Amino acid sequence: MYPPKGPTFKGSVTWYTIDLDLPPSERWKLIITDKKAEVRAIRDLANAFVPSGKLIDLVDKDLVRAFDILVSSCIVIGNLIHGRNMDFGLFMGWDMKNRSWLITEKLKPLVVNIDFQRRNKTVFKSTNFAGYVGMLTGIKPHAFTLTMNERFSLDGGYIGIVEWILGNRDGMWMSFLTRSVLENATSYEEAKNLLAQTKLLAPAYFILGGNQTGQGCVITRSRVLSLDIWEIELKLGRWYVLETNYDHWKEPLFLDNRRTPAMKCMNQTMQANISLKTVYDVLSTKPVLNKLTTYTTLMDVNKGKLESYIRDCPNPCMPW
């Protein structure tokens, strides 16, 4: 239900401002002060599953699972709505009593919205986990929207990190690349080129939306190069693209098929009825919404709007 309420809505997300003109050591003090107990709790819990206990390692070593959809709305020519469910915590401890993932539940209080500013003007906005400085979900107002998803591959993040440790450091952390793009790129095309061409430490999907008709794509990446750029193409009747952690030209894993029900929802909604409300409804439909879902974010690039909501998936609900 939109505006959010009911059993799937667990709470709104607090906004903070980060002043990029401050030294890095000074920027995050308010957020960390507000979220100190939660940061400590997630660190301690992560230590039980990942020896380093570092959230950056959890995220950038291939563990970002999400559902993203880019929709070309015909209500306003050129308008794009970008929605995502961020899922996190698979196989990292199951709470038998509450029937939920331990890391997932601990992360929900850490979800924050951040307005990154320079000289008191917004550079970009992001939905983040407090204590994590990479970017997984963000908007450059009036220019583009950007999210990142895990891509399963044998040539995965652990190989890239081993190479990085051994001294081959020409690959970039994925969420540091998305942060750099959000901060520095000035257009959809510039962002697309950087996301497609920069060497990475792990394979990934980048979901990128622009501010003009047809500017929306899913960039499928290996660590070294772009394998595919799948774009919205209205002339072909492709008014949306969606990504669920699987290459779009292949069938998803049968145990994790969020693509088929999501496409069914989108096709029943139809392009003429697309709005923040209807996209939120799709993102609230099981199994698109599942026990791993921490938050839902909706972005409207032309309005420069980002709104996020902490989610819950009442039983019966798929664990993933």
Structure report:
The chain has 320 residues and is α+β, with helices and mostly antiparallel strands. The protein has a single domain (9-311), classed as Penicillin V Acylase, Chain A. It contains 10 helices and 16 strands. It has helices at residues 24-27, 29-34, 36-47, 55-60, 102-107, 157-165, 174-184, 188-197, 259-269, 276-283, and strands at 9-12, 14-19, 65-73, 79-87, 94-95, 100-101, 111-118, 121-129, 137-140, 144-150, 204-209, 216-221, 226-231, 240-243, 293-300, 305-311. It has an 8-stranded mixed β-sheet with strand order 2-7-8-9-10-11-12-13, covered by helices on one side. A 6-stranded antiparallel β-sheet has the order 1-16-15-4-3-14. It has a two-stranded antiparallel ribbon with strand order 5-6. Helix 9 (259-269) runs antiparallel to helix 10 (276-283). The longest helix has 12 residues, at 36-47. It is globular, with a radius of gyration of 18 Å. The model is unreliable at 51-63 (pLDDT under 50). Residues 78-305 form the Choloylglycine hydrolase/NAAA C-terminal domain.
